Amino acid sequence: MSLPTLTLCRTCRGADPALPGQVSAALEAAGVDARLQQADCMSGCTRPQTLAVRQTGKTAYLFGEISAADLPDLLTFLQMYHESPDGNFADARPLGGLRFKAIARIPAGLS
After folding, report:
1. What is the mean pLDDT of the chain?
2. Which residues contact 24 (CB under 8 A, 6 or more apart)?
């Protein structure tokens, strides 16, 4: 199975240039196997800094207003995402404040 890909906007107004390194360090420290990349404008400009999480065959997510304070909740999300066969969750409460930062949830393609 493919790895989850995290895409962090680097051009959001007020984007924290340290955030990609902090996300990478948090993933490594937690032993989370994921790919981190950056992209120019992901059209989440009203809620900067945006982060997309996607994996082949799973629902994709777009979050806004991501900061270093969200890293513990992001790691929880990634653990739940890993354990979910389709990327969906029956209960998002374990995600703490991250659940309120979701901009979009894009279902995986239907077979």
Report:
1. 93
2. 36
